[in-house]
Amino acid sequence: MRILGLDVGDVRIGVALSDETTTLATGILTLTRVGPRKDVQAIRDLVGERGAGQVVVGVPWRLDGSLGPQGEKVMAFVEALRRSLSVPVETWDERFTTVVADERLAEAGIRRRERKSKIDKAAAAVILQGYLDDRAASSPAGGTGA
């Protein structure tokens, strides 16, 4: 089974996909937001095209654990996905993922101008990888959880 990971922003949605063993997340693309219905349809299409059996959406929780305005927008999108998709939609704490993604791109030698176009899918990969790692660590055998 593959898992789709999403970094949902106001303008773009970064998308990552796991390998079939749910061990490794890779940023695959960035969608430009068009509107709630079309955005949900685009994710539904990706789930079908990529054979994803689950979707993980990063939620920007505040440091105190509450949801701010952006978190509330993302949770509304999560609820729309849950109503529309036939696969489970989970949430994952995405605090600091954009910072981590930017640092990783910089370490890879990618210039700042180029990082801007890659940051959303890189952040989605960080979100999904965190979820996958946690899932593997909490599985009874300590394996991939697949």
List the helices and strands and how they pair.
Elements (H helix, E strand, L loop, with lengths): L1 E7 L3 E7 L6 E8 L3 H15 L1 E8 L9 H16 L4 E5 L3 H11 L4 H27 L8
Parallel strand pairs: 1-4, 4-5
Antiparallel strand pairs: 1-2, 2-3
Helix pairs in contact: 1-2, 3-4
Model description:
The protein has 146 residues and is an alpha/beta fold. The protein contains four helices and five strands, in the order βββαβαβαα. The chain has helices at 36-50, 69-84, 97-107, 112-138, and strands spanning 2-8, 12-18, 25-32, 52-59, 89-93. A five-stranded mixed sheet has the order 3-2-1-4-5. α3 crosses α4 (112-138). 32% of the residues are buried. The mean pLDDT is 88.
Q: What share of residues is helical? A: 40-55%
Largest sheet: 5 strands, mixed
Say how many strands there are: 5
Shape: globular
In which order are the strands of the major sheet placed? Answer: 3-2-1-4-5
Helix-strand pattern: EEEHEHEHH
Tell me, rounded to a whole number, the average pLDDT: 88
Q: By helix and strand content, what is the structural category?
A: alpha/beta
Give the amount of beta strand, in percent.
15-25%
The value of Rg in angstroms is 15 Å
**Could you give the distance between the termini?**
7 Å
Tally of helical runs:
4
Model regions low in confidence, pLDDT < 50 over at least 5 residues: none
Oligomer: single chain
